[in-house]
């Protein structure tokens, strides 16, 4: 299972969000604290990605993705201290056997102003569209960035966003279809447009922390502060810098 986080708030160096906290996403790549069980990997070393929205840039987010462990990228520390943003989505990856291993499989995935990440696993995802009744065209399938369950889910979600479906509804609908067809699927999703974060927890772990003018949503707390709140399983979280709402799926 992967680890991911999303941040909205005052512009900060990417290092302050991704690498500097005591239990940062960087640390979770080699020492996750909430990734337990015999079927859970001890490392998230199959790649990483960071997507951010440059200040005052309305063209959309920028991504930096690699197929190496985050600690093995000699360029990222310098970049992460230089680059600043008030909206970030980042992930470290543990690949599932049989899925793509190149950097195109590393979250976040993108479309327009949207960034998306999956922390989870969908069994037999290749036949998921037919089993859910999802009608995907050849164009939809060719738009997949990688051969992974995450990329397929993103195609299903993105086509709803493009049709005007609100973010929370798009996530909930795809999770509902997927869970019905694959009851054992773990589906922790993050989606942001740089203004709000929509997240779903179905299995695994998910937390959020809000303080004045900022919010962080993450697979596990990045600090030991007591103001982290656990998102209940089978729930949807919709949050901005100033509000947070949780609803059952």
TrEMBL record:
Signal sequence interval, chain numbering: none
Glutamine amidotransferase type-2 domain segment(s): 2-249
| Record key words, sorted | Glutamine amidotransferase, Hydrolase
Pathway of this protein? Amino-acid biosynthesis; ergothioneine biosynthesis
Q: Which Gene3D superfamilies match?
A: Glutamine Phosphoribosylpyrophosphate, subunit 1, domain 1 (3.60.20.10)
GO molecular-function term, one example from the UniProt record: hydrolase activity, acting on carbon-nitrogen (but not peptide) bonds, in linear amides
GO biological process terms held by the UniProt record: ergothioneine biosynthetic process
User: Which HAMAP family does the annotation name?
Assistant: EgtC
| PANTHER family per the UniProt record, alphabetical | GAMMA-GLUTAMYL-HERCYNYLCYSTEINE SULFOXIDE HYDROLASE, GLUTAMINE AMIDOTRANSFERASE DUG3-RELATED
Annotated protein name in UniProt? Gamma-glutamyl-hercynylcysteine sulfoxide hydrolase
Specify the species.
Answer: Streptomyces hainanensis
Supply the gene name. Answer: egtC
């Amino acid at each position: 299972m992967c680890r991911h986080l999303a941040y909205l708030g005052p512009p900060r160096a990417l290092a302050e969000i991704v690498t500097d906290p005591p239990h940062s996403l960087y640390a979770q790549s080699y020492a996750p604290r909430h990734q337990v069980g015999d079927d859970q990997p001890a490392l998230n070393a199959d790649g990483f990605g960071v997507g951010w929205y440059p200040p005052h840039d309305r063209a959309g987010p920028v991504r930096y993705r690699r197929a190496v462990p985050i600690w093995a990228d000699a360029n990222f520390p310098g970049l992460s201290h230089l680059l600043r943003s008030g909206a970030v989505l980042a992930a470290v990856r543990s690949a599932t056997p049989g899925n793509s291993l190149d950097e195109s499989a590393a979250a976040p995935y993108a479309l327009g102003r949207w960034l998306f990440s999956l922390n989870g696993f969908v069994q037999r995802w290749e036949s998921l569209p037919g089993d859910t009744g999802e009608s995907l065209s050849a164009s939809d399938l060719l738009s997949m960035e990688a051969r992974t369950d995450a990329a397929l889910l993103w195609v299903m979600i993105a086509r709803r966003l493009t049709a005007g479906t609100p973010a929370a509804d798009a996530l909930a609908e795809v999770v509902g279809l997927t869970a019905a067809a694959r009851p054992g699927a773990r589906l922790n999703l993050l989606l942001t447009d740089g203004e709000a974060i929509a997240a779903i927890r179905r299995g695994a772990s998910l937390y959020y922390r809000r303080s004045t003018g900022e919010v962080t949503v993450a697979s596990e707390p990045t600090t030991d502060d007591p103001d982290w709140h656990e998102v209940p399983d089978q729930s949807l979280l919709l949050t901005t810098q100033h509000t947070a709402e949780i609803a059952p799926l």
